């Protein structure tokens, strides 16, 4: 999930709110870092960029204490946001003749059920901007805490999108076909990538932590068969620092 940089910097400059444990509570990790991931979906080249962190959003009931990392038991339904990068034909010779894709804001909901160290989740978001389709993910994670400071989450995930999404990022229209030389291609919606990940959090203070992610995804189905895809394997690395903010009302 993503947040705007000005709000992020303002949040980091403030101390965590000291609130009584009455009323409903909201909590989230907010921070900054760096990430490296494929330049575009299907690219063989990696690109480094800032990582604006807004994650582990949690809602707590009256009298329920806030969690350190959002890993409370039970069902949680929370809002979720993502900022998806665009694509430019100049990014690669493989994209010559294809249309630009603008950056996209994706907004939706996350359903997460946690029982002890295990959790499963479903994420569904609507795109606004570069694509107007529905995208999401379904996955599972397992929480491992070797000590009081370090927490690890190995997990597996499948990423999916409807045909509006897959045809934007993996399709070739008749016009693009005439310009690029690729045959017209209209992929169906469904799972476009599957993979595994390892997340880590190391607590420096009760609220401040270093976080990292290593992710490996592989394009699958119609997405993997797109004629311009250079590389089906899509790894990503992220490292940053977050502060956990909580609010009671």
Report on the structure:
The protein is mainly beta and 249 residues long. The chain has a domain of 173 residues: Beta Barrel (Porin). The protein is built from four helices and ten strands, in the order H-E-E-E-E-E-E-E-H-H-E-E-H-E. Strands 2-1-10-9-8-7-6-5-4-3 form a ten-stranded antiparallel sheet. The longest helix has 8 residues. The two termini are 23 Å apart. The N terminus is likely disordered. It is found in: Cell outer membrane.
Properties at a glance:
Outer membrane protein; 249 residues; signal; ten-stranded antiparallel beta sheet; 4 helices; cell outer membrane; disordered N terminus; Porin
- CATH topology tier name of the domain at 67-239: Porin
How many strands, which pairing sense, and closed or not: the largest β-sheet? 10 strands, antiparallel
Total strand count, please?
Answer: 10
What is the helix fraction of residues, given as a range? 10-25%
Can you give the mean pLDDT? Answer: 88
Family: Belongs to the MipA/OmpV family.
Protein name: Outer membrane protein
Keywords: Cell outer membrane, Membrane, Signal
Subcellular location: Cell outer membrane
